[in-house]
Automatic annotation (TrEMBL):
InterPro entries: Uncharacterised_FAM23-like_TM. Keywords: Membrane, Transmembrane, Transmembrane helix. The chain crosses the membrane at residues 51-74, 95-114, 126-145, 255-278, 298-330. Residues 176-207 are annotated as: Disordered. This is Transmembrane protein 236.
Length: 346
């Protein structure tokens, strides 16, 4: 392993391990502070400091145990490319373990924090910003690292080149002229030109020259500027989590946090997080997105708006509804005989 690969490997592993530990430690520390305040304000008052340090010590012990007994052995098996872990290309074992070991306890303690304060008539901490944002940001970091792990950190990576050419080949072929496929042998690529003898070629910066209508200007997927697949993965990952981020944000609203609605919000938000286990370009992802996110989120948001007003933007409610309707229409209704328009013309 070269020096560059070792540095990349170390950076990725540090980011993922920090994403595993920090959200747990911070949320459990905040939960310990709530328990200590409850103990102090109880009648008769209890020893709040003892309860605080007991929970903090338990959180440290939990993080240490899962790191040594589960996380490190799993990463070792993945690094050694064991077939039962990396042989199948439709799921990500590291993401699955992270969601179970880190995200699930974090959401459980957020629910417990709400219930403890409700039962003791307290309004001490709604976890509005740092803890929840850290949980979701760690999820995004885990997702991004898993997406770009096989790409280089500098220069043109193999995966980005392949993705770029695949998109160009699928979307940018015009009549009378085709973009050469990098997978074809050399002579075939040289002969793949139009009648005028011109052909598209890939430049070192990832742009394609020679496509008609560009007047010699570099052509890319967007038609405006070069787009590296690694940057595209960052954008896709953040867009992938925006709906879950908004749903969890609603739980931090005081009216919602000190009510029983934290249960469905965090439960369905956690269920939506399970989508990260599936590979980003798997055909199962669209079905899982509707079943695990858009459909349950629509009913939760409809209930929140009905009871608390517009604590969540109606834009997300319409987004969930339209995605569910579009999924049903394009996957089921268009297959019905009444929507078969071919018989009109043949």
């Amino acid at each position: 392993m070269g020096l560059g690969r070792m540095i990349k490997f170390a950076i990725f592993e540090v980011l993922q391990f920090a994403g595993l530990c920090l959200p747990l430690l911070i949320i459990m520390q905040r939960f310990a502070a709530i328990i200590a305040k409850v103990k102090t304000s109880a009648r008769p008052p209890g020893d709040g400091s003892t309860a605080y340090w007991l929970i903090v010590a338990s959180s440290i012990a939990y993080v240490t145990s899962i790191a040594l007994l589960i996380w490190v052995p799993l990463k070792s098996l993945v690094f050694m490319k064991k077939k039962f872990l990396v042989g199948r290309k439709n799921w990500r074992p590291v993401a699955l373990v992270y969601v179970i070991l880190s995200t699930l306890p974090c959401f459980a303690f957020l629910i417990a924090s709400s219930e403890v304060q409700i039962n003791n008539n307290m309004k001490h901490d709604t976890f509005t910003e740092l803890p929840v944002s850290l949980v979701l940001f760690s999820l995004i970091c885990i997702d991004v690292v898993e997406r770009i792990r096989c790409c280089r950190l500098t220069g043109q990576g193999e995966r980005s080149t392949h993705t770029f050419f695949s998109n160009i080949h699928k979307k940018c072929t015009v009549p009378g002229q085709t973009v050469p496929n990098p997978a074809q042998p050399g002579p075939s690529r040289l002969n793949n030109r139009n009648q005028n003898g011109s052909g598209a070629r890939l430049e070192s910066n990832g742009t394609v020259l020679g496509v008609p209508g560009t007047n010699g200007r570099p052509f890319t997927i967007s038609g405006l500027s070069p787009l590296d697949a690694r940057a595209d993965e960052f954008v896709d990952s953040f867009m992938f989590w925006m709906d879950t981020v908004e749903m969890v944000r609603v739980a931090g609203h005081p009216l919602v946090f000190y009510s029983g609605w934290v249960f469905p919000i965090y439960i369905f938000s956690y269920i939506s997080c399970l989508r990260v286990v599936v590979m980003p370009h798997s055909p199962l992802l669209s079905s899982m997105g509707v079943a695990l996110q858009d459909l349950p989120f629509f009913f939760v948001r409809a209930g929140l708006i009905a009871l608390f007003g517009f604590v969540t933007p109606i834009l997300y409610l319409m987004k969930n509804l339209l995605i569910c309707l579009a999924f049903v229409y394009f996957n089921f209704m268009t297959k019905l005989r009444v929507f078969n328009t071919e018989r009109v013309f043949f």
